[in-house]
Amino acid sequence: xxxxxxxxxxxxxxxxxxxxxxxxxxxxxxxxxxxxxxxxxxxxxxxxxxxxxxxxxxxxxxxxxxxxxxxxxxxxxxxxxxxxxxxxxxxxxxxxxxxxxxxxxxxxxxxxxxxxxxxxxxxxxxxxxxxxxxxxxxxxxxxxxxxxxxxxxxxxxxxxxxxxxxxxxxxxxxxxxxxxxxxxxxxxxxxxxxxxxxxxxxxxxxxxxxxxxxxxxxxxxxxxxxxxxxxxxxxxxxxxxxxxxxxxxxxxxxxxxxxxxxxxxxxxxxxxxxxxxxxxxxxxxxxxxxxxxxxxxxxxxxxxxxxxxxxxxxxxxxxxxxxxxxxxxxxxxxxxxxxxxxxxxxxxxxxxxxxxxxxxxxxxxxxxxxxxxxxxxxxxxxxxxxxxxxxxxxxxxxxxxxxxxxxxxxxxxxxxxxx
Amino acid sequence: xxxxxxxxxxxxxxxxxxxxxxxxxxxxxxxxxxxxxxxxxxxxxxxxxxxxxxxxxxxxxxxxxxxxxxxxxxxxxxxxxxxxxxxxxxxxxxxxxxxxxxxxxxxxxxxxxxxxxxxxxxxxxxxxxxxx
Lengths: 419, 132
Prior knowledge:
heterodimer, A: mainly alpha, two-stranded parallel ribbon, 21 helices, 74% helix, globular, B: five-stranded parallel β-sheet, 5 helices, 21% strand
């Protein structure tokens, strides 16, 4: 099931929008990490709803726009366009039920837009959906190297080379064992190597400095709202397991090819990357990340059925709320593991950008064969890099493919046929 | 300065690598830089083991400094971004001259911004090479 599964999909997306917008309206959770401190001030009564709304408007929501090509390419709605919309709705509306209805409308509109755009774009003389899907192919394999790249980023080239070798061997073993789902072993092996090095470094760290951050935990607020949060967790997991919804291009590219165990491990890698930052800012502000500590995604992909996913999603969020203080304290006393989060996210952005650029070249050659596509894509990406990276690096490949797809259609209509 | 004639800097966050490269390219022997987690880096500055903390996050909208703000206080921290894009170099120089000990960057432009920041910090501490 994906966005083509009408009307079940429409209902699930509307429910997700309804519940999420109410979470924001009540100040329980927001999606944009830059909005959390301001929401924290709002719920403590230090700023008005007007000021809160102004701050939300001043934040950059472009990530939501950049994620659209992935959604069009796969029919899986990525988290950013929907959840950013729910932020914008929830901070403005002063009545909960109005926020809920607008959120449901946003979910439904996004669902229908994706449905209509996907059929329109695949009906063009030169199909635009297929190249966007092709573009994601290298990413399906490339994601497995992320933990090993993180090892190199944090511990140097030597340990990094070892981690890459281990990942490669695990990949070969995986490929030789049909009983194991593709691309699962290399990610698992990479994560193990990363944590082995982190444990070693943490043991060797000089512990003379006392680490005091002066943060007063506001986790009690999460416990008051655990039912609201867990309910949203159930919906998130349900939507993710039915392949209607995805977190990032990384997990979704595997999920869209039916590789759910891989998607689960990729999502777990991203979760580990975000955990320190999300745990800290949650405890500091008393405002939850809408997707919790994010473990709802790996659990949803691992779940044997959508119903199972929904139950597990609620349980995971409840467990995260219960353990939040402990996780936060553990991460503060082990700074090496906090840094692992940075390294994983740095590795993830680098690998995603590179794999998508590679994918863009593959798509370009199919769209305009014989070199015309390749030179255009190279031009678009190089110009963006040299003129201040107006398009974020992760979106360079997708934007180039979209632009080329439009060009290919214009050329086709003008009578220039490549195929 | 904790070491005479030399700035000691901490690079943190997802773009810690590019930040280190920019710091070394611009500062050469007049800087020493190391990578660290945000909590440890901010603590280093607070304890006087480092002069400045340079943090980074994907969107440049706060994550880079959330721990530094908790440790060093809001008045000592400043994001060198506007809506997730790096500030113009002139404004980076202004912020560097201010009372701040921790600076936040967005990952995509971290190398460029860190280079401008270090140049300005060197000038602030009269460590910059005379202009030719």
